[in-house]
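From the shared-data thread, chain only:
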Amino acid sequence: MLKTISFVLNQTKVEAVLNPAATVLDYVRKHQHLTGTKEGCREGDCGACTILVGSLYKNEIEYQTVNSCLMPLGQAEGKHIVTIEGLNSTDLSIIQQTFVEEGGTQCGFCTPGFIVSLTGYLLKNDQYNFDDAIDSMGGNVCRCTGHTTIKRAVKKILSTLSDKNHNESKLLFLISKGIIPKYFEDIPKMLGEIKRKTVSREYEQKPDFLIAGGTDLFVQREADLIKSNVKFVFGENGGDKIWIEGNQCCIDARATVSDFGESKVIQEYFPEMKNFLRLFGSLPIRNRATIGGNIINASPIGDMTSILLALNATLYLEKESKTRQVALKDFYLGYKKLDKEQVEILVKISFEFPKPNTFFNYEKVSKRIHLDIASVNTALQLKVDNGIITKANISAGGVAPIPLYLAKMRKSLLGKKINAETISEAVEAALSEINPITDVRGSAVYKKLLLRQLLLAHFYKLSPELIEAEMIL
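Structure, as tokens:
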């Protein structure tokens, strides 16, 4: 089904007449012949197809890096889509030139993604930090082993931006420094002139798919999507996606992992959460992957699901304007089987804010330290009053057909004095309720051992003196 989708591509207004489920990658390469955006893995893993997506909010543009291979064209409606060609001026940008000078490119296939990602970092942030800049390019894979020279280029680029006045317009500053072309000044007006419409409202028939971030759907079922009626439910920038109701933290199911990690509400109660989420895919994936999608996907190793299980979250499912609640720990009935009717939609997630003396931690091991699917993950929330455990919620992923809430471990901990004996008994209780299988991410024996060590890691972070050497060995 063809639809007209209006947006700004680099510095030109365009109207694409295509199925809205077509990917932005295919549109820019095959229809606009902007081949600087490379097609690599087509799974959001290599970063060669990275673009910038700018959304108009309060007369300003907010930019994010996105994998164009996983972004449906329908969600470009009313946005500014920037490919590597859109960062070119008559001369090389300062980023491009510095990559050349420092030898930050070899075969060059991955280079557009690195340039776009670093530009996105500079557009997104007001203060610049080397480690954060490197993290922003975590989803860009260089297979020519040019990482040291790329890091050297990044450090040199950041040094040229140290003279920014805090009162100066970030956009004008980056233009003056040759980071972005001058036409970026005109984009808010250009987007304002585009008559916004929601593509999904044009469908009279019931959609076959609801697409939020689509980071999993476009990997698994792209061929089906392009032949189907789709409805987009991705949350727009600027909305209150995470808010407080009484003692509850509430999350719009359309909120992204980035929304969650950057939320001031979350940062106040969980200062380490942003660091935990660095283990969840790359930044472009976190910018698109939604909390609701991670839950409904029902992967036994879902990162956000593991975190929310340990927070003892509640789900809100809506059907025909009626809402019912179900505890996340009771939501998974079997492998990919949910306590959910087909027509029900997950609209909200909530959990109780932690009280004083509450500890929270998340652990994950994968084949790569960052950005990879977990072999095993686990999260723990523990409340200790006067040395006695008064609240415990623990999750484990990768050790059962479902994201697992460790009920036996919880029971073993509650009411006990926190000491080495209690911890040892609780870990053994956890190992009695798991059922890992051997697969490409490790043997069943390995996963069992891994979970044991990760559970001990929780307590080591809480109180290192409680973990005896014999327990680790």
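DSSP finds 19 helices and 18 strands in the chain.
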